[in-house]
UniProtKB/TrEMBL annotation:
InterPro entries: X8 (IPR012946), X8_dom_prot (IPR044788). Residues 1-65 form the X8 domain. The keyword ATP-binding does not apply. It comes from the Eukaryota. GO terms for cellular component: plasma membrane; plasmodesma; side of membrane. It comes from Brassica campestris. Keywords: Glycoprotein, GPI-anchor, Lipoprotein, Membrane, Signal. This is X8 domain-containing protein. It is found in: Cell membrane.
Length: 69
């Protein structure tokens, strides 16, 4: 998705994480992929106050988020 160069195909139409089709849901997935692609550190989670680290796995249905171990 854009500058971060992460695979966001699952939040595109017909993707496993497309529904719900909301900015919040799509941003949540994209932020998570970017965070994990860029080293799982707090610096990779700085999105101007629009994201936060959580210990709750946000996966649902067929939409699977990467999670830290």
């Amino acid at each position: 998705c854009g500058i971060g160069r992460v695979d966001c195909s699952v939040i595109e139409k017909h993707g496993d994480c497309y529904e719900p089709d909301t900015i919040w849901s799509h941003a949540s997935f994209a932020f998570n992929v970017y965070y994990h692609t860029n080293g799982n550190n707090r610096i990779a989670c700085y999105f101007g106050g629009t994201a936060t680290l959580t210990k709750i796995n946000p996966s649902y249905g067929t939409c699977s988020y990467d999670v830290s171990k």
